[in-house]
Write a structure and sequence with these properties.
Blueprint: E1 16-19, E2 40-43, E3 53-61, E4 68-78, E5 89-95, E6 107-110, E7 119-120, E8 127-138, E9 146-154, E10 163-171, E11 177-178, E12 191-192, E13 197-199
Parallel strand pairs: 8-13
Antiparallel strand pairs: 1-2, 2-10, 3-9, 4-8, 4-10, 5-6, 5-9, 7-8, 11-12
Length: 203
């Protein structure tokens, strides 16, 4: 993928925008803030091509009570019909204190048709989107250690096609939710656990 010259633009900037409210993305018609959330960060400069790229990262100490790390993302990406390493892309990386990748935290998508979880967007030719998706990573094997989460988005290497994403993240305890807190003989109850959960252990 294109080499990113890292800078310190901060938030807000042309490639980092705090999103609030009930607005909808123009391409995917999904909320610009994840359901249940109050804010998100829009990463990238929207439908503007031109070799743009952006990174958002945070390093934090894993605590026992917050070892369940949840991140949410929604993506819009064009298919430039280039080679995979030349396409617009969105990438998620997680690293431990030794700069080793945490397997459950990795995700990469490049522009193209027939990507699982993506749909044809209304905003342009060969443009696809993935609505808000939740990923849960069990970091209980890294308690007391620093972990880094990094989100990266980039246009195609020739500058003619774009990608952008919205991200949100939190650390909350694992909770099983029920419809009712009381059940009688002969009745049933639905238990709702964490979607897309992935367990990861320190090497």
């Amino acid at each position: 993928h294109p080499v990113i010259n890292a800078g310190c633009g901060g938030i807000p900037s042309a490639h980092h925008t705090i999103m609030t409210g009930a607005g909808l993305d123009l391409c995917g018609n999904f909320p610009v803030v994840a359901p249940g959330g109050s804010f998100s960060v829009k990463l990238g400069d929207g439908q503007t091509a031109g070799n743009g790229a952006a990174t958002l990262e945070q390093t934090f100490i894993v605590q026992q009570q917050t070892a369940n790390f949840t991140y949410k993302y929604a993506v819009v990406v064009e298919d430039a019909t280039h080679l995979p390493n030349e396409q617009p892309f969105f990438k998620v990386e997680m690293y431990d204190q030794n700069n080793q990748m945490i397997n459950c935290g990795q995700y990469l998508v490049v522009g193209g048709p027939n990507i699982p979880g993506f749909f044809v967007a209304a905003c342009g030719f060969q443009t696809y989107y993935r609505p808000w998706t939740t990923v849960n990573v069990d970091l209980s094997g890294f308690v007391g250690q620093p972990v880094t989460i990094r989100f990266i988005v980039g246009d195609c290497c020739y500058g003619g096609h774009y990608a952008y994403a919205y991200v949100d993240a939190s650390c909350v305890p694992n909770i099983i939710q029920t419809q009712n807190d009381t059940i009688c003989a002969g009745e049933s109850v639905t238990l709702t656990g964490i979607k897309n959960a992935c367990s990861s252990r320190a090497p």
